[in-house]
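Worked example 3. Consider a protein that binds 7,8-dihydro-7,7-dimethyl-6-hydroxypterin.
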Amino acid sequence: MQVYLGLGSNLESPVEQLRAARAAIAAVNGISETGFSSLYRSPPMGGKEQPDYVNAVMAIETELSPLELLTVTQRIENEQGRVRSERWGARTLDIDILLFGDEVLNLPDLIVPHYGMAGRAFVLYPLFEIAPDLEIPTHGKLADLVSRCPLDGLERLSDVA
Ligand code: ROI
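Given these inputs, the predicted complex is written out as structure tokens:
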């Protein structure tokens, strides 16, 4: 299954956090990396005063089920010091399952396509960079979503993670 993951960090060397997350994800049995976007800097979305984020999107091919993959992403978040304190708060690492093939999932712990992705510049632009022809289930063409989404201060940091 072709899957896209959204990665974000705004604490404790965000670039290093994303690098470590990429390596940890790619090292899992049943997952292989098929793409990785540039790194992007983005102002925090959501009210709280907090540092800018570094965001990226990773493409993987996986044999895992959606919930098996969720367990993996949560383990890696926890291993990288994620503390789930406040909603919308700063975090060392966030890994979101954006798309799972063309599946639409409404499970108690997992909603796919990711509920906020269609309006978030820090998800749409990196995703468009590595998969410009995607159709997003229930949302339509990625290219159309991007063209309707303001940059909101998003800046590309580099071409390699
Ligand atoms: N804001 C940005 N720019 N990037 C994120 O990854 C991000 N993640 C979050 C909230 C707090 C909603 N804001 C964010 O979880």
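Take a moment to read the result before moving on. The chain has a mean pLDDT of 93. The longest strand covers residues 53-62.
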